[in-house]
Amino acid sequence: NPVSGDSLRRRFLNFYASHGHKVLPSSSLVPDDPTVLLTIAGMLQFKPIFLGKVPREAPRAATAQRCIRTNDVENVGRTARHQTFFEMLGNFSFGDYFKKDAIKWAWEISTEEFGLPIDRLWVSIYEDDDEAFEIWHNEMGVPVERIKRMGAEDNFWTSGVTGPCGPCSELYYDFYPERGHSDADLGDDSRFVEFYNLVFMQYNKMDDGSLEPLKQKNIDTGLGLERLARILQKVPNNYETDLIYPIIEKASELANVSYVHADDQTKMKLKIIGDHLRAVVYLLSDGVLPSNIGRGYVVRRLIRRAVRTGRLLGIKGDGKGNLEGAFLPAIAEKVIKLSTHIDSDVKARSTRILGELQREELRFVQTLERGEKLLEEMIANAVSNANKTGNVPCISGKDAFLLYDTYGFPVEITKEIAEERNVGVDMNGFDIEMEGQRRQSQAAHNVVRLGVEDGRNLVEDVSDTEFLGYDTLSARAVIES
Ligand code: ATP
Ligand code: MG
Ligand code: MG
Ligand code: MG
């Protein structure tokens, strides 16, 4: 099947190999970079080359990089296009070719290799990048009305608070070309999907925010494999591609529901499991163990969210009759089966991965039920208090902290459950409690900062001991208990 996920990955790498790129393996999800939490893009393994700190191995490279983006955790199942775990196909130039060839090859692979109809492709460019406009318009023949100039938030790419960056140009696929171009908005994801980002990497962003030109001009690109598969397999979202759907089917089987006939809420839960199981299997494989700090907390949180989601779907025990058993390993086996062409090491590590999952699930389930009961009481109290005072119902920071500290509830789960009942959580109060515990802790720690760039959180910096900062969505300041 020429449009299977595995074929598309291979076709991408072959295309760029035939244009002189050296095909390199994906790097680990744990970057070789103490300032970065997880691998969020293909360029991370090349950061030292872009910065001129180490010599290039080859002038051009191509990879299929496994990535994790915790900033997209809330989008999982909500949008058609986001997972926390995905593969980014990338072609890179280290001081070799620049804008013109990057655009030419991106256009060629999209329209010729993958056969995307020209009249369905739109491009965005950075607002003042006239050079990119010229190339797209004059040389590729893209009509003016399908080239959109956009601001820094969408079209100036930075891998973090500091580091290599530059203006970018992106390719979008139009699912409804018949809607015309007069009021088309590339941000409308019911019509468009962004699939290929070309970064013209020519600056280093300094601590003070200033841009220092890099010694050489580079190309860094990212094409989302699941998004490409979704387009070419003609399915409504990334989750229904052959890269993820078998995992969802396994979860449906355990929950005794049919994905096809399920309502949207059920579908979303199945997608959450489909995504989170992929993420945790690859994270565990890359050596990240569940814990209360940094990367370990990301894994723990994803595992716990998957467990809770499975229970909401009605999966009991191992889903096969053993009420004392764990169900994550059965689904993880599917993930491992699908892993061959993503990361051939996963299979060899499967015993350890399945063991870790089982242990973490059973540990969580022990406290989950007691915690859920307590949380129900807290929600009821919050509602009755609110009825008396006329305030918005809200769980106190102290209560959220008790659930976190004593019952192992990631505060995001508390928030999620409370929000399902229209009850808030006093996150400020929770942070104060956390801070109090932190102060008492004897643990040595380093202060770290999380990358917040134009309202986006692409990179979370992390120390090897402790988080003190957190972004809007994910890793919270926590202490090793
Ligand atoms: P979006 O605007 O859709 O969130 P992005 O601009 O954050 O995407 P980039 O940082 O440009 O994404 O990453 C390059 C490519 O990687 C994207 O064009 C897309 O194909 C893919 N990609 C990014 N985030 C995800 C995700 N969470 N799940 C699946 N694919 C993704
Ligand atoms: Mg994004
Ligand atoms: Mg974008
Ligand atoms: Mg983008």
Total beta-strand segments: 11
Order of H and E elements: HEHEEHEHEHEEEEHHHHHHHEHHEH
- Which descriptor suits the 3D outline? globular
Radius of gyration: 23 Å
Helix/strand-derived category reads: alpha/beta
Protein name: Probable alanine--tRNA ligase, chloroplastic
Family: Belongs to the class-II aminoacyl-tRNA synthetase family. Alax-L subfamily.
Organism: Erythroxylum novogranatense
Subunit structure: Monomer.
Molecular structure report:
- The structure is a single chain.
- The chain has 481 residues and is of the alpha/beta class.
- The chain is 41% helix and 16% strand.
- It contains 15 helices and eleven strands.
- Strands 1, 2, 3, 4, 5, 6, 7, 8 and 9 form a nine-stranded mixed beta sheet that branches. A two-stranded parallel ribbon has the order 10-11.
- α7 (245-255) runs antiparallel to α10.
- The longest helix is centred in the last third of the chain and has 40 residues, at 350-389.
- The N and C termini lie far apart (49 Å).
- Mean pLDDT is 90; it is low at 442-481.
- One magnesium ion is lined by residues 170, 194, 197.
- One magnesium ion (MG) is lined by residues 170, 194, 197.
